[in-house]
Amino acid sequence: MIKPEKQLTMPTPMAQGPQFKVPLRFRDRRRVTIYLTLLALAYLTLTTLPTMVPEQLDLLAASQTFLQNIQIMFFHPALSNTTFVQLLQALLESVLLALLTTMLGAIIAFGLAVISFRQFVPAWIGLGIQSFMALIRAIPNVLWVLIYSVVFGLGANAAVIGLTFHSVAYLTKVYTDSMDELAPDAIETMRAMGLKNGPIIRQALIPNFIPSFLSWTFIRFEINFADAVAVGAAAGAGGIGYQLFMSSSFYFNFHEVGVIVYLILVFAILLEIASYQLRKRVMGNQ
Asked: Highest-confidence range of 126-130, 172-176, 282-286, by mean pLDDT?
């Protein structure tokens, strides 16, 4: 048998498409825009900050005074212009203010979230509600309290309405986002079984929504407590914020400021522990 000679193989040319040069992508342009904006803000800050500093300012002396005040606050807390019982009562007032505004905001926000849920209403209704809530959230919480102070006067009424107003806008957003995580197929299946919106909300929406509801509501309660401390002095709403304002700006007693700060920190830690335990229990029952 005659063996064939060594065969010659010709390389097969591979088809190549047209060569394109990739232009600057959109995200690259966006990144450049962000960098330019940050540079512009940094330039404006560096050029305007020296004009805001008084000419008589002694930076070294100011820094030493600041460190001394911090040392007095955290290492030598003491009371002289008020009593510990009065501070506890003031703290309770701020806690109740935050609790009331959070509960009202949660109830109203849940209703608005259901109304704006895309599976229940046309898209334009949900978009309109969310856009209005975004406009409310764009204005700081304390500013809403000051706006209502013009109508109702300085006091707890303006604080309750202002904090509730902003809480509704915040919670409506996060509640709606949590509801959107529910699979649309589940709702369509329940509708195919003849169920209306009411049973769907009770049997499908709320059971899957409870963990997120608790988490976001506790977060909002923490925010409202911090804002209640702030508006206690700014809007005359009383509470621990008013005591903090009097101690720091009226009496200039930083020993007393330290006691108030420690009380606020202790409550914040207890609130975090309670939030974790409650959510753990709810998740365990499910």
From this structure: 172-176
Handedness of CA 207, 208, 213, 215 (dihedral sign): positive
C-beta of residue 222 within 8 angstroms of C-beta of residue 271: yes
Instruction: Say how many residues make up the chain.
Output: 286
Domain boundaries, the chain: 78-285
Residue 239, CA distances (Å) to 108, 155, 172, 202, 257 in order: 25, 11, 27, 38, 14
Counting Cα atoms < 13 Å in the Cβ hemisphere of 279 gives 16
The DSSP code for 50 is H
Structure tokens, 130: 């969310």
Residue type, 118: R
Coil, helix or strand for 9? coil
**Which residue carries 């309750």 as its tokens?**
160
Tokens encoding 149 = 């102070």
Q: What is the 3-state secondary structure (H, E, C) of 267-278?
A: HHHHHHHHHHHH
Residues 6+ apart with CB under 8 A from 99: 221
pLDDT at site 40? 92
pTM of the predicted structure, to 2 decimals: 0.73
Third-level CATH fold of 78-285? MetI-like fold (1.10.3720)
Q: How many helices (H) and strands (E) does the chain have?
A: 11, 0
Structure tokens at 14: 């591979």
* Cα 279 to Cα 274: distance, rounded to the nearest angstrom: 8
pLDDT in tens, 166-217: 999 999 999 988 887 766 666 677 767 766 766 777 776 777 778 888 888 9
In this model, does residue 18 exceed pLDDT 70?
Answer: no
What is the rounded (10 degree) CA torsion for 71, 77, 80, 85? 150
Q: Where is pLDDT greater, at 23 or 222?
A: 222
